C-alpha cells in the first residue's frame, strides 16, 4: 500500500456503486510459495476471487487467508501477506459496518 521513492505509478479515480467493493493485497500474497517453491499466481487469485464474489468482506478475507495457507502449506514465507477488503454500502450510513 506504499511506494518507494522514485517508483512510477499511474494515478486514477473511480466511484463505487452500492454493493461494489475493493480487494487489495500486498505483493507478499502473489509471492507466497509452497514446499515446491511454486509461486501463487495472480491468475489463481483471479479464479479464487471470482468464486468468492458473493461473500461479504470479512468472509472473503477469511476464505482467502485459508486458501493462501492451504497453498503454502508448511513453507515459511519471506514477505508479509496483507489483505484488505471493503464494500460500499451506499449513502445511508446506518448500513455501514466494519469487517
Description:
It holds the Pfam family SpoIIE. This is SpoIIE family protein phosphatase. Helices cover 30% and strands 10% of the residues. It has a two-stranded antiparallel sheet. It is globular. The relative contact order is 0.25. With 99 residues, it is of the alpha+beta class. The chain starts with 20 loop residues before the first strand and ends in a 12-residue tail after the last strand.
Instruction: Please give the radius of gyration in angstroms.
Output: 16 Å
Which parts are unreliable, with pLDDT below 50 for 5 consecutive residues or more? none
Roughly how many Å apart are the termini?
19 Å
Counted by DSSP, the helix tally is: 3
Percentage of residues in helical conformation: 25-40%
Coarse shape: globular
The helix-strand sequence is: EHHHE
Going across the biggest sheet, name each strand in turn: 1-2
Overall average pLDDT = 88
Proportion of strand residues: 5-15%
- Quick one: how many beta strands? 2
Backbone structural class: alpha+beta
Properties at a glance:
99 residues; alpha+beta; two-stranded antiparallel sheet; 3 helices
Compile the SSE list and pairings.
Elements: E1 21-25, H1 27-30, H2 42-51, H3 57-72, E2 83-87
Q: What's a concise summary of this model?
A:
It is globular, with a radius of gyration of 16 Å. Strands 1-2 form a two-stranded antiparallel ribbon.
Amino acid at each position: 500500500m506504499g511506494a518507494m521513492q522514485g517508483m512510477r505509478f499511474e494515478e486514477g479515480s473511480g466511484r463505487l456503486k452500492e454493493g461494489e467493493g475493493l480487494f487489495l493485497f500486498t505483493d507478499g500474497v502473489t509471492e507466497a510459495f509452497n514446499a515446491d517453491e511454486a509461486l501463487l499466481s495472480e491468475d489463481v487469485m483471479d479464479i479464487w476471487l471470482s468464486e468468492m464474489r458473493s461473500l461479504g468482506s470479512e468472509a472473503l478475507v477469511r476464505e482467502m487467508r485459508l486458501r493462501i495457507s492451504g497453498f503454502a502449506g508448511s513453507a515459511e514465507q519471506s514477505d508479509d501477506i496483507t489483505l484488505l477488503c471493503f464494500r460500499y454500502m451506499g449513502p445511508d450510513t446506518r448500513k455501514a459496518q466494519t469487517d
